Structures are given as structure tokens and as C-alpha cells.
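User: Look at the shape:
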Amino acid sequence: WWQRRDTGKGKIMLYAKVKADQVISIHQAGSSYTDEEGTRYPTTIWSIPDWLEKNGFLQINLYTKKNEVFYRYGTPTYVYDKKNNAVDETIKETEKDVSEIKKYLKSSTLSQCEATLEATDFYINRNSEDSSYAVPDDVTKHRKQVYGHFDECTTAINDADTHAQCVALMRQVS
């Protein structure tokens, strides 16, 4: 099965070949196409609207995923909508287990904390190697604030019992 790849313009472009009101194949812009007779077309074929229409190709209305931190996604399916002459992608989504989400949120919180503290690690390291060097008060204050925020986030994550509570925490962690 093909993988979704960005076309370089920030948007994935998929096309469905529709015949007798049925989706027969899916193709991605940026890849070559070989028809039933064996004729191979270049990757630029997807940018020629007249050719696409003449040969029964429709751009697919892609399913908008929520957040992959919180949901698992199944294999996409494609349905032709005759009334609107469109092809829609649908993907079954299921909520991830709360423990898996909490594990991710804790890891993300720790990574952000470490990245924030890294800028002041020099002062702490120097103090540990040279006790006569005093860590500046603003550095100590900043690090205490970071640790305090980390502790608050970790407590909130530990207290979350439902999927909805985990989703709400994402703003606090990021």
C-alpha cells in the first residue's frame, strides 16, 4: 500500500479512478501512472485537469485526522458520491488507551522541561565543579519555576482518568 507523502506544497493530493460509479484505484500526485493498456504517464499528469476529467480521475476529499497522540486510525476507504461527483476518504478512528496517552504526555513534559533547563545547565555544572562560583539568583528562580511547572503538569497527568481529560491536558503540556 502506498504511503501518504507531502507533495512539497504542504498538501497531499490523492486521485481516484472512477469507472461505472465505482472507485477502482487510488493514485498519488507526484507518482507516475500506467493505464490498462500499459501506457505509462509521467508524474506531471496529475496537474492536467482536462486529462484527469477525460480519464475518470477525481481528486479525493481527504479525511481530516484529529490528533494522532489521542487516536488510532484504520485503513482509509474511498467512496464515490455520484450526486456531487466526488470521492470521499473515510478512516475509522478509535481512542487510544488513557495509559498510553499519559505515557506520551509525561515524556513530552519531561522533554520540554529538559530543553528549557538546558540553557542554564552551564551555571549548575560550573557550581558543581567550583563551589566558589555562585549560581545567579535569576537562574535559580527560573529553574525553580520550570520544576514547579513540571510538577504541576505531572500531577495533572497522573490525575487524568478519561480520554477527554487527557485531551484537555495537551494545552497545558505543550
User: Anything to note?
Assistant: The helical segments are 49-54, 98-118, 121-129, 137-159, 163-173. The two ends are 33 Å apart (CA to CA). DSSP finds five helices and nine strands in the chain. Residues 15 and 59 are 4 Å apart (CA to CA).
